[in-house]
């Protein structure tokens, strides 16, 4: 019986093509607007590393001055770390792994004559970063512990930069001229772009492009490579690079990885004890709570999904509701002209339940058509959004979950809009319709 009603629904689409096209288009526009907005919100708020997000932690201690400090006010201190704290965290032995990182930019002089000198951007970090973040390698591997201790001139390249410099060949073992020094290539990454970019939310952008180069942290320090990102300095710093390292400037991002999520309490105890020791040394004058953020808490703290993004999603669903109201009116007009047909069917023995099923199935057919068109419009909207910038392009893509949601949303919206018109159609009195024929 369902297949019969489905065929009736398909035929009804052709009975009044103008009215049907208007209903399908109205429904499709509402679905496309809400789904495209919801898709971006879904990508922005997704867990970038679900397999270990509860075991990766960002520490935050407040090293700001007492001047202007309001303990009752909102905590506006920089969540980055000073070099002093980052170095101590690395030596602490806490957790399974620890890493520190910051953004860098450096001039690269290609050996190929057809390529000009280019500025490349990337990260300086410790080798624990690679297993912590599960970074995939296409060629080679991370630098060795010996290279890290020595601050050796070694580098890991992105696949895009490796292909630009060396073509499709494996470049491991070759050298590139970077920062006026010869760096040996030890690895090439596979395309890797967590969304959101949780490990570099400060200064790098939540949806920034992937890094072109990755250097050892000690190497970047030896070359006195200035941070290419956010730097917040409290108090006066001594001149020179060493003065910068010894200062209270915050510019480094630190991550701890624990064996299990339950080890968080022990890490918090370490952080509290560390802050207490630093206060005894005359640092950390503000007595603010020391905080640990796991990955999802870190995204929430950094407001990766801003309030205006959530508001945009609610407005899009409000627009969908408006489209549903219009669809209800169009369905009422469509079903009202079929009152005589309903009356004859009722006189021939069809029950109200059967009439209800028939018209609701026809509504579902309209919803299915609207869903397909809405899906096409949603893809177009996301493509237009992605053309605005590289960062938006990362977020503006649809996954299988959103594909399924689009179809379900369209069917559900159409059937919801069809409840009132279908109920009205079932109330037709057969005698009145037969008398009018």
From TrEMBL:
Lineage: Bacteria, Pseudomonadati, Pseudomonadota, Betaproteobacteria, Burkholderiales
Name of the protein: ABC transporter permease
Compartments (UniProt record): Cell membrane
InterPro entries referenced in this protein's UniProt entry, alphabetically: ABC3_permease_C, MacB_PCD, Macrolide_Exporter_MacB
Membrane topology note: Multi-pass membrane protein
Transmembrane segments: 311-337, 358-382, 402-423
Keyword Phosphoprotein (UniProt): no
Keyword vocabulary terms for this entry: Cell membrane, Membrane, Transmembrane, Transmembrane helix
Record domain ABC3 transporter permease C-terminal: where: 315-429
Residue span, MacB-like periplasmic core domain: 20-273
Coiled coil regions in record: none
Keyword Membrane among record annotations: yes
Major site of localization recorded for this protein: membrane
């Amino acid at each position: 019986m369902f297949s019969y009603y489905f065929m009736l629904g398909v035929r009804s689409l052709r009975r009044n093509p103008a009215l049907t096209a208007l209903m399908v288009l109205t429904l499709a526009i509402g679905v496309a607007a809400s789904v495209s907005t919801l898709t971006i919100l879904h990508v922005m708020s997704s867990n970038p590393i679900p397999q270990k997000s509860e075991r990766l932690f960002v520490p935050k201690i407040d090293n700001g001055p007492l001047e202007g400090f309001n303990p009752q006010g909102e905590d506006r201190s920089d969540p980055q770390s000073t070099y002093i704290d980052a170095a101590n965290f690395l030596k602490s032995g806490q957790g399974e792994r620890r890493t520190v990182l910051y953004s860098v930019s450096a001039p690269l002089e290609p050996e190929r004559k057809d390529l000009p000198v280019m500025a490349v951007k990337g990260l300086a970090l410790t080798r624990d970063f690679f297993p912590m973040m599960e970074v995939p390698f296409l060629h080679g591997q991370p630098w060795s512990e010996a290279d890290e201790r020595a601050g050796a001139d070694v580098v890991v390249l992105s696949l895009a930069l490796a292909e630009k410099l060396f073509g499709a060949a494996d470049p491991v073992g070759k050298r590139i001229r970077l920062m006026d020094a010869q760096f040996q290539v030890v690895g090439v990454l596979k395309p890797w772009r967590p969304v959101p970019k949780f490990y570099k939310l400060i200064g790098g952008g939540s949806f920034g492009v992937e890094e072109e180069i990755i250097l050892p942290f000690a190497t970047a320090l030896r070359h006195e490579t200035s941070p290419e990102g956010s730097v917040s300095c409290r108090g006066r710093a001594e001149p020179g690079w060493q003065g910068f390292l010894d200062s209270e400037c915050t510019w480094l991002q630190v991550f701890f990885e624990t064996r299990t999520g339950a080890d968080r309490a022990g890490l918090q105890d370490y952080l509290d004890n560390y802050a207490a020791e630093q206060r005894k040394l005359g640092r950390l004058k503000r007595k603010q709570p020391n905080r640990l953020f796991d990955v999802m808490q870190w995204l929430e703290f950094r407001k990766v999904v801003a309030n205006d993004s959530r508001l945009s999603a609610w407005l899009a669903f409000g627009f969908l509701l408006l489209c549903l109201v219009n669809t209800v009116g169009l369905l009422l007009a469509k079903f009202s002209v079929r009152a005589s047909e309903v009356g004859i069917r009722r006189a021939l023995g069809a029950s109200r339940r059967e009439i209800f099923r028939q018209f609701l199935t026809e509504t579902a057919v309209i919803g299915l058509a609207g869903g397909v068109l809405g899906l096409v419009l949603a893809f177009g909207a996301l493509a237009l959004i992605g053309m605005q910038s590289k960062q938006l392009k990362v977020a503006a893509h649809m996954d299988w979950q959103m594909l399924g949601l689009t179809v379900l949303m369209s069917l559900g919206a159409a059937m919801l809009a069809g409840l009132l018109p279908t109920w009205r159609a079932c109330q037709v009195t057969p005698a009145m319709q037969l008398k009018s024929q």
